[in-house]
Amino acid sequence: MLNRLASLCAVVLLAATPAPAQVPLVPADPDATLVEELVVTGRLPGPAWWRVSDGDTTVYVLGVPSLAPKRMEWDRGVFERRLEGANEVILPFTNIRAKSVGVVGAGFNLLRLRSGGPFEKHLDPATQARFVAVRERLGHSAKHYPTSNPLAAGVQLASDYRESSNLTTTDPAKLVELLARRAGVPVVEKTYDIGPLLGAIIRTSPSVGRICFDEVLNQAEAGPGVTLAAARAWAQGDVHGALENERTYERCLAMVPGGRAFDERTKADTAGAIQKALAKPGHAIALVPLRPLLAQGGVLDRLRQQGFEVKTPGEV
What we know:
Blueprint: H1 2-14, E1 49-53, E2 57-64, E3 68-69, H2 77-83, E4 89-90, E5 95-97, H3 103-113, H4 125-137, H5 150-164, E6 167-168, H6 173-182, E7 187-188, E8 191-193, H7 195-203, H8 206-222, H9 225-235, H10 239-242, H11 250-255, H12 259-277, E9 282-289, H13 290-294, H14 299-305, E10 309-311
Parallel strand pairs: 2-9, 4-7, 4-9, 5-8
Antiparallel strand pairs: 1-2, 1-10, 3-6
Helix pairs in contact: 1-5, 3-7, 5-8, 12-14
């Protein structure tokens, strides 16, 4: 039950798909504007790294995809060198679980979402035909979408599409965590309560939820080509190419009640964790999703404003 709840909220907040350009109701993407001088192709082999320092400490920051192939291959040479002697490894702050005091409320909210289905009976004929074609290709029956909530249906469809396409929101962070623990390097994580997030899904208006559902449907029809190309670019240190697949959740997140505040909180918490790591002499590693890392008001922008030195992947 808890795994199901966590999966549901993680997809909503971290893995909605890009919005079609013609949709007029989508609000501004909070990470739409990048700090261009930070978007630099890496000079070292493998993915691009940024460096944040304060004199006696350096935090090496690896920008990671928000969606990538499972068990993606990438050159780990630079990472493994930097892992040696690291004070800690900060993982992406994307963990969402039901805390014990909120399990009952979260379960009740989930039951509210899983009612009124099957979802396709609430669709107009043209969209229904498209949706049925996609779900049948993914191998699911109408009963697999037992909801009248379009945002919840979009969440389920996104999860099904990614599973079918062998895509994940957890790599390469999952591998990095494994390697860090094997090396005896402390791992820093943060977990957020899913209870309020499920409530946010319920409070999202049907019109907004439908926009998000349509985005997911468009992506499922298009297939994983863009994601695979962006992942290849990421593995080669091509930051511009990697960012082609990085507008994955911000537009829908901005529309969900409390979504913008949650986005701000995760950025502030991530910047705070890096700042805390800078208080101990030596070096550390941090993993941060690319667009929140590089956006105006993003993690690196916040750290620069606090007076820390930030160097790009183009600086050796």
